[in-house]
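User: Before I run my own analysis I want an independent prediction to cross-check against. Here's the chain; please return only the structure tokens and, at the end, one sentence I can use as a sanity check.
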Amino acid sequence: MPIICCVLFKFFFKFKLIFDFRGLWADEKVDSGIIKIDKKIDKIIYYFIKRIEKYSLKKSDAVIFLTKKVEKFFKNKFDYFSHVIPCCADFDKFKIYDENDIYFKKLKSKLNLKSEDFIIGYIGTFSQLYLPESMFLFVNECIRKNKNTKFLIITKEDKESVLSNLNRNRYFNINLENLIIQNSSSSEMPIYINLCHVTLSFVRDTFARMASSPTKIAESLGCGVPVICNKNVGDTNEIFKNFELFLVDAHSEEELTHRAKDIFNSFSFNKYDLRISFINELSLDTAKLKYSDVYKKLLN
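Assistant: Structure tokens:
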């Protein structure tokens, strides 16, 4: 782990150390099944990593957390200067595209999208961690309410491998006419997001997720596209305190059904207003200023 090298360098050279705490790494590995806490050797590895985490926090002069929730969790345990900087997006790159843009029109034509289609987008890979069963339940409920609903999966993975992975799981019960899987490079991601009327960001609500700040949320909002995410993950409850329709209990079939109904009855957001509402919190320029403040405070 790089932080150990940094702590050692600090010991010998006496420089200031900023710990950019990207998450509860060991607990994330438990969530994904890489570390199996019921196995003796894995349990030893887990507690060893947690000791490193604790020691590194103790020796740091400043710590950058992704969420206020995890900052509060550690605040009473250690004495250091800390700052919360969530995962942000480049709002110059993730922007609102004009629907009359030639490339935008060509892309819609390529994907065979019609003006009456309602597009629900998902960015990333599929695994049990991201609650695919809840996503498909939600999408199917939307299809029942509007047969022109399409589920657009935007991924860096090959289309055939994604389909193969989905077919191995019991939750994959969507009509293929309503499913679009599109491989996309990072540079193309913003325009694909612009095709969507709403995107999804579901993840299991576990202990590790208090430190989670999904980048896809900032990317979607930068494009002026609403994002539905599950409650109690990182600071989502606070971020969307004025946009309660964006929050849902992704483990509750009842709530998912209600939110699917809300999408067609209550979702009416101006793309530009939505983008402006979050630009001061989730843009890359804001993150740069916050990092600059941390450096200045340590140098003074």
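Sanity check: The mean pLDDT is 88.
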